[in-house]
Amino acid sequence: MRAFEKVGKLSLSNYILQTMICTTVFYGYGLGLFAKMGIWLGILFGLSVYTIQVVASHWYMKRFKQGPLERVMRMFVYWNVRSKPKIEVKDVVNG
């Protein structure tokens, strides 16, 4: 079950990767297999892509804290290269 948790932590990266894989396989600029794959082969292809993503996400999260696209997104959200929110330090004396 922890492998599925790691897929969720890399959700943006996995979503974009899955889109790139499937459009390359099904659209005309790639293999052009849209409507040429049967239902069962399509289901098998989808499950295979997802299984590979689960394994790859588990491997990636062992080595890094967050995914590459999640890091870029946090950098833009927090306007900080470290991709962490800036903590405001308040002066204890002046409140």
What does this protein look like?
This protein has helices at 2-9, 11-26, 39-63, 68-78. It has 95 residues and is mainly α. The protein is elongated. It starts with a helix and ends in a 17-residue tail after the last helix. The relative contact order is 0.15. The mean pLDDT is 88.
Task: Write a brief structural summary.
By secondary structure, the chain is mainly alpha-helical.
Task: Break the fold down into its secondary structure elements and pairings.
Layout: H1 2-9, H2 11-26, H3 39-63, H4 68-78
Attribute tags:
95 residues, 0% strand
SS element count, helices:
4
Biggest sheet architecture = none
Low-pLDDT residue spans: none
Beginning-to-end CA distance, first to last residue: 46 Å
Q: How many beta-strand elements?
A: 0
Q: Structural class of the helices, strands and pairings?
A: mainly alpha
Strand proportion, as a percent range, falls in under 5%
Give the helices and strands as they follow along the chain.
HHHH
Average pLDDT rating: 88
- Shape estimate: elongated
Helix content: 55-70%
